């Protein structure tokens, strides 16, 4: 190449580059991701809250509400999407085009009352998804078995929806799962036995205000839960599986069920700060170990069949009669003293 032809070549190159639309060079957003977002917006009836999703701007610019791109690895694929507080013009299903955002790690759909219908198969396309939140919507149907195909899931929160049916036993196939939050739905049937084989990192199970029934599986004794809330269901029988001095348990909330087991026989985690078993058929004595719990600040054992003297000392004097009332024969401060 001669010098002249090189200069001519460079000149032509510069001219042709400058005539190309600049935005396509300056946008960090992946074009497929952007197209998927615009489809999602359309599938939700173009709500005014998503006006910032403007096709002529860069979707990785923070002006796109609820959208985050992966700046760490500099791939700029959308890895975090939050669709929250949207007023949809009419009823819509969860947008199937979410399945076209394959790099999502966090999907948070919350407080969208006009969102209805089932959890769509399209989300199995999200093979990097770690945190899945679908809360405060009117979605219904059961939790599909296909959820367990998203092997990367760490937490699932489907609280405050209209979901129903039995809890899928296949959730125990998720190797990285550490917590499930399914409170305030209409789930029924038993807690699956397979939940005893959640990984040893599994720490939180929140199922309150559903219609779960039957016995709590003995297999759950293997878990080391930090938080368990099963209140306001129809669970029966033994719940001593959640107790144990070798566990790191902080909160045990089992209120308003039909549970019946000997509380005098359980051993307590030294980290326990909340024990609420009100309104059950729990019998036996209060464990003496309650007085040794440094962090105990919430205790309610009222409306059970407990008996014997209330252990004195430690944090026990914090609690008044309302924590102990309506048992078979509990006695001692703050209740009337035991007859000798
Ligand atoms: C984001 O968009 C605004 C408005 O279009 C623009 O002024 C700003 O420079 C953009 N920021 C980035 C980081 O691209
Ligand atoms: C799943 O992803 C593939 C490839 O990214 C895409 O072609 C397909 O339409 C997606 N399926 C659904 C149901 O979103
Ligand atoms: C959705 O849920 C809200 C709150 O639970 C309720 O007031 C509303 O009527 C529901 N809408 C539909 C369409 O079901
Ligand atoms: C304990 O539970 C009973 C029965 O539901 C309730 O009336 C009482 O207020 C509760 N006590 C405390 C201290 O929360």
Automatic annotation (TrEMBL):
One cellular component (GO) term of this entry: membrane
Domain Leucine-rich repeat-containing N-terminal plant-type positions: 31-70
Domain of life: Eukaryota
SUPFAM superfamilies found in the cross-reference section: L domain-like
Assigned keywords, A-Z: Cell wall, Disulfide bond, Leucine-rich repeat, Membrane, Plant defense, Repeat, Secreted, Signal
Main location: membrane
InterPro entries: Leu-rich_rpt (IPR001611), LRR_dom_sf (IPR032675), LRR_N_plant-typ (IPR013210), PGIP (IPR051848)
Record's signal peptide: 1-18
A GO biological process held by the record: defense response
Membrane topology listed for this record: Peripheral membrane protein
Repeat as UniProt keyword: yes
A Pfam family of this chain: LRRNT_2
Localization per Swiss-Prot or TrEMBL: Membrane; Secreted, Cell wall
PANTHER family cross-referenced by the UniProt entry: POLYGALACTURONASE INHIBITOR (PTHR48059:SF24), POLYGALACTURONASE INHIBITOR 1 (PTHR48059)
Family statement: Belongs to the polygalacturonase-inhibiting protein family.
Protein name as annotated: Leucine-rich repeat-containing N-terminal plant-type domain-containing protein
Organism: Lupinus luteus (European yellow lupine)
